[in-house]
Amino acid sequence: MLRVSFHIGIVVFLTLLSQVGGIAWLVAVAFRWRLLVFTALYAGLSVSVLFLAPQFGRVALPCLTDETLRVQPWVFCALNRQYVVPELRDVLVDAASDVAARHPGSVTVVLDAGFPFFDGFPLLPHLSHDDGRKADIALYYQKGGAYLTGTTRSPIGYFAFEQGPSACPPARATMRWDMRFLQPLWPDYTLEPERTRLALQLLASDGRVGRIFIEPHLKTRLQVAHPKVRFQGCRAARHDDHIHVELTR
What we know:
Layout: H1 2-18, H2 21-28, H3 34-52, E1 59-60, E2 69-71, H4 74-78, E3 83-84, H5 86-102, E4 108-110, E5 134-138, E6 141-143, E7 146-148, E8 190-191, H6 193-205, E9 209-213, H7 216-222, E10 229-230, E11 242-247
Parallel strand pairs: 2-4, 9-10
Antiparallel strand pairs: 1-3, 5-11, 6-7, 6-8, 9-11
């Protein structure tokens, strides 16, 4: 019974993490070389998903390419978290292309987006990435005044926060993690304001975009005054390490 519960737990965990990982583990359990079989099956399923996702109204964003828009780090692509509806892909490609046209050599980095199948399937730990209509964009960074192409401060793009004032009171039941113990570990990069401001302006002026979440202190710092650019609330995760973009309804 304990062994069955263990495998059920792995199936649930892998399904929540990558949507198709649980299927690969269910099959692999029957084989002696379980991890090897799982790896091969998971890789095969992930490749197949690229061709199946359009049947569910989703397309993959480009991963680890030299284009002006790409998903990184590789783990988001490996976990099948780079899928969006075609309209959102077009929005992101257009904005990234415009940023690169204004600032040649610029790369817009997408972090978590969505899974390839089924509306309503949660993309944990996000509260709303469940329909392919939302995606997170990394902030743009510089060092010593020089733009860092396609670079994030943390290995996964999240949890390297830009510090600033907040009106949110301390609370235990919240996803507003400060991750203070991690902050000294990140490289000494600073926010590149021109590209970040331009990206926000381009997205906000796009009629296909409904809402953009970013911390109020960054909105003030970047001088972006647009009603679509708003605060996500004190219960949600901090948004001074990335920009949340979602389509209009």
